[in-house]
Write a structure and sequence with these properties.
With about 650 residues, the chain is an alpha/beta fold. About 55% of the residues lie in helices and about 10% in strands. The strands form 3 sheets. A 6-stranded mixed sheet has the order 7-8-9-5-10-13, with helices on both faces. Strands 2-6-3-4 form a 4-stranded mixed sheet. Helix 5 packs across helix 14 and helix 12 packs across helix 14.
Length: about 650
Amino acid sequence: MIARAGARSKGFRLSKKEIRLRALENQVKRLERRLVEWRKVSDRYGWLRLVLFGVGVAVGIGGFYLAGWWLCLTGVALMLVIFNVVAYFHRRVERGLTRHKIWLHLKSTQIARMKLDWEHIPGPTSLPTPPEHPFQTDLDLTGPRSIHQLLDTSTTRDGSLRLSEWLLNTSPDAARIAQRQTLVRELAPLAIFRDKLTLASTLAARDYSEQWEGQKLLAWLNRHPLRQSLGWPLLGLAVLSGLNIVLFTLNQFGISPVPGLILFTLPIYIILYVIMSRNIGGLFHEAFALRDGLRRLSAVLGFLESYRYGPHNNLKRLCEPVLDRQHRPSVQLRKVARVAASATLQRNQILWFLVNLVVPWDFYFAWRLEQYKAEVTARLPGWLEVWFELEALGSLANFSYLNPEYVFPEVQPENPAVFRAEGLGHPLISDQARVSNDFALEKPNEIIIITGSNMAGKSSFLRTLGVNLALAYAGGPVSATRLETGLFRLFSCIKVSDSVTDGYSYFYAEVRRLKALLVELERPDPRPLFFLIDEIFKGTNNRERLAGSRSYLRALAGRNCTGAVSTHDLDLVKLADELPQVKNYHFREDVQNGQMIFDYTLRPGPCPTTNALKIMRLEGLPVDEEWGSGGRGNSGLRTED
């Protein structure tokens, strides 16, 4: 058997995270109790409406037989009024019930994120995979059970994409990182603001699980460009319409100066209307498509407009495009909603025909729609930019709020080669199992060779370095007690796999990946390359692996790069005697009472132990005594950490 050791024991004093977790669990319990009460109230209203309907039918029938139509209609009218009043309060209860359901889902999801309960964390957004990305796949930044899934609280696909772009950024910029850190720090304690923003967006959605796509709305506006000017046609039709109304009124009073003139003006109006109406085709569908597309945006921007920002100046500055008093989004979007409501007249073809026969109803609202579309098209990108930025920043802020012991890194662009970490751990490992390590690159262009037994933690440590750098450059907190870092170009070679479809082996895939690292190193860039290589050249035999590894690390030494390489080849550690840039670290294990014990603690120097044969023997596999007793090691036996 193999036991996992090293999880930190907890004292009697609760950590900040445990206190926050308990508070959330208590809040969930309260919400569940309230939901039970709200459901009971909703059920009572439902039964009451059913009873009122039956009573209304009985009153109508009874009144008709007892006193005729007048009592029947009076009774039915009274019951309709009572029914509608009850229905109004029932709808309010249903809205409250919906809010509580969404709020409960938000809080339950936060608990799941804190506990790494992947079954109850919303599934990952389907994201485009950049070809040959330097570190996306290796570091579990996107996809199922990834950093992105753990962080992402976005209700829009665009906000989710923006967060992934930050995590996968290959050109970190100190100014942008500092700006995001400032906003994330400000947003982190504003849990109610973030939750209400999510609540507003979710309430406006038809499907709570769907992610709204703002780019689709922009694309729709581009596919439906503004029509040619409708001003002059509308003016002409309005003049004819006014003339028809005046002539009709004068004819009714018998004072028309030219009786029968309306018989000429009205056909002219109708003919011109029919000819010009080709320019306003699809008014009904366009108005409703725009209104539906803006429904969710309207709810969110309305919340941002009315929020009291107080001392949160950075947040207020970010939201300035929404707070413009002269062009408030809520006003613009209400105008579009009014046009859509007016366009519903087309549903009643008879009434629609009669109204347009008198006044150019459709022309007027088509003209107004074009004006509103122009205003919305001009300002929509700025509004969307605010929302998508808030979505991505809110995800990082929520991550910081749920992990109060994580810290924001100190990014030092003036010292590009620095990397010093204290208490560095992997955020995808639970608090109970995570073991944190101190680690520093003491000099520029340093290469760290990490040796250790199977399953001792080498691969996980490489991912720990990369994941925390990605989080740091995204502007979020990191799993550490302190982290200082310069600006690096990150590149990894960890999860290499063969390809049956492309027809190349694991070893060839690894060679291609390591070649890509060298190509990236050749690219002119003042930022050093930070590389992470796991089990270098493990796809070939011992002799060629050692020769290839030595040559490759010699090629990296002295270049504009730094990083860590893990290996089982204990002979590779001798490079530290030849190259001043190379330094050795290791992980080790112990055997106690027939169990493998790992403490996952990084130590200086090469690894003094091996464990492949120990694992084989513990699991009952046959091992020859001449191998199992001693000194040949396990350099030829390889498994993933």
